[in-house]
Amino acid sequence: MQPGEAVQAAPANPGEGADGAGSAGRERGGRRVVVTGVGAVSGFGWGVEALWQGLRAGTTAIRPFRRFDATLHRTHLAAEVPAAPASPAERPCGPAAARAAAGGRPLGTLSLADRFALSAAGEALAAAGLGAALRTLPEGAVGVFFGSSTGGMWESEQFLAGVFDGRRGSLRAIASQQVNGPGDAVARGFGVTGPVQTVSSACASGALAIAAALESLRRGEVEVALAGGSDSLCQLTYAGFNSLRSVDEAPCRPFRAGRAGMSIGEGAAVLVLEPLERVLARGAVPLAELAGAGSACDAFHMTAPEPEGTGAAAAIAAALDDAGLAPAAIDFVNAHATGTPLNDAAEWRALLAVFGERSGRIPVTATKAAVGHLLGCSGAIEALVTVLSLARGELHPVPALPAASATSGDGDPIDGACPAALVTGRPLALPAARAALSTSLAFGGSNAALVFSRWTGASP
Amino acid sequence: MVTALGTAGAHGCGRAGLERALAAGAPPPATEVDRGAGYHRPGGARRALLTPVAALAPWLPAAEARRMGPPSRLAVAAARIALAEAGLDPAQLAGPGTAVVLSTAFGPCSFSEALLRQVLRDGPESASPYLFTESVANAPAAQIAIACGARGANVTLCQREAGPLLAVARGAAEVAAGRAERALVGAVDEMPPLLHAVLDRFGALAAHGARGSEAREGPGGRCRGEIGRPLDRRRDGVVAADGATVLLLESAAAAGRGGRVPLARVCGWGSAFDPSAPPTGWGGGGEALGRALRRLLRRCGAAPEDVGAPPAAIDRIVSGASGARAGDRLEARVLRAAWGAAPLPPVLAPKGVTGEYGGGFLAAAVLAAAVAGVAAAPAAGFGEPDPDLGVSPHDGSPLPPPRALLASSLAAGGAAAWLILGRPR
Lengths: 460, 425
Known about the structure:
The complex is a heterodimer. In chain A, 28% of the residues lie in helices and 19% in strands. By secondary structure, chain A is of the alpha/beta class. Chain A has a single domain (31-454), classed as Peroxisomal Thiolase, Chain A, domain 1, CATH 3.40.47.10. The two termini of chain A are 19 Å apart. By secondary structure, chain B is of the alpha/beta class. Chain B has a six-stranded mixed sheet, sandwiched between helices. The longest helix of chain B is centred in the first third of the chain and has 17 residues, at 70-86. The chains are: A alpha/beta, B alpha/beta.
């Protein structure tokens, strides 16, 4: 197949084609896919290094915030993205990309989620060494696969507040309100002409988008994929999760006995994915290999996970099968770990089902404890952190609990009913980790899992 | 293989009403939209093609409906209609072999609006957990999974008008890769008054014109009277619709085991993006999108290698032309660029009947591909060719069933998706 053919012909007999069910993704005739660049915006700031340094220091970005008046809400904390760098030179996304993303309209029409996405994509492309080179690739060779839960909902809220008060409101305020806004903004900003799709499957959106990119790359539909997600803090989700009593009044405490809910965050994460042979041919060095992906649904309840974690376990098993790896090959887990009593218990049951007696010994980290729950982007930012952990040989700790919220000793003890080997205190050195798992368990029962392998320099 | 089709819309529940409307070349009656909020434009759109709520009752018991938002109700009803057509009990779908892939252009906006009204006017603590639960875009796909016990992949796509074809592609990929034995795929959208008003304010909807007018000539020769006129010189916007369409996709083996006669075969799919498009409109990248479409046709063996010769295998096009001024212009340019100097096969433009959004277009495309599908009818709303387009819809003269059909859908914002449907083998 020629590069840039963003097309797919179905086998003559779907399900009976050469792919063959049940075999590993690599053996299905697909190409090996690696991560060559990453970009992030989070409560720790604009850029991957701000995120990584915040994580490895064991600090949290969950704190009082300014986006809207939280005093009337039940809880008062969130991991809000700080103001963008004042200097254009410090912004990963240049003004040309921002102007292109706005489609000839004022830059003010870009939503916050659009801006997060553009910044993360610009940083990821630069890290991959593809900044200017992107437009020299064959037509249709680059695709965008994005996850978002609410897109430009924050801007829509400003518009609707006016409408509810009987004012007309400016249409400019909702020009980018759509859920597909951030993904489209990235495509527009960087001149993408291949497939562009936005997944909106709640908290699994980012992981499902990365899975879609993996499939597209394996099949040769695209040569470069920008995969990730973006969501911004807004009143709808903040009040909505509070209405479910799913939000902790303190920073979330995944897998702890006293956990009382999630913390909401915002931001964006983008992974540049490419086929391995292309990366080696251009002399670039992969950060990690995206070895497999899997998904499955609980089909149980709109908001509660299936208590035994059956759907999550099926997604993990499918991802391992897709990667051609046994559970024993997984050396650490970046868990979905929202900190809600039900999620963490179900996720633990899923890990137990897949990893058996090893479950309590596999190091587990919970990125949400530091940057909050990024909703449609959570699967993407946790995938990004998993990649960095493999590339840098260490796993970030969950933040230390402040004494005021500790129920005993140095904080909440790990819940005896879900005794995950949570990394605490300081980063855990894992220089020889072979492969890692990142999980996403969503509203509506949609589960997704991604398996990444450490890049060892082996030839394809 | 597409082995069943469930659809709910202004035509009612089930495909019979839609087939009748398509055969007659006339849309079902439109409903007056509540304009009490005063947000519509003066002289703007007043009507939409809305699903009669009572029509859902046989497919959705009241006790179940009360726990769902409007899009979930439409989607679950459409899924059950498809399963009934296939002769499948939902219990037969339970398990990891059934995937669900839906698309929605705007998500569950009425519940989002109601929730925000509570939060912004009455205070955050008045937020209803019920409204929030059903305000997420993936609620309809999740409710279908719960209703059927479908434990395969569950994915919701948001890509405006390109979403329905992308959802079919993603579901077909699940089946083709062997990850699922079957997939329920499709599209769902609601059309509450505020969304209708916002689309009207953006100038997306066919205008009503002067009071009581029908088919009046408006400024610039555009036609008023709230009629979707795909590819017509006088077109001035789309007629908005709600509804849901859910297809049952199965492997050939599964369809055979179940004794189901396929409606159509999914032969291929493709997508592309036009970065020149503004966030809420269509761009000028017709030539590039045309090249992407041509690559799809070539890949599927539907186009010869020598550029300029006709892609003979495609003998029918179901166009997503909707009556949008710029959207139809781009659609025409893409098709002309893909076919080059060769004449286009007959072009059907069903959005004059189905309206825009709500999955009606997807249902119409499958019905057009089915061997026993509806007869070609003159395109609803079409009367005057647009010389600027160079593409006109089929005139309604008798046509044989298509061997291979191209469905084309270009989205506001830049995305494009295509699907090739063929005769079952």
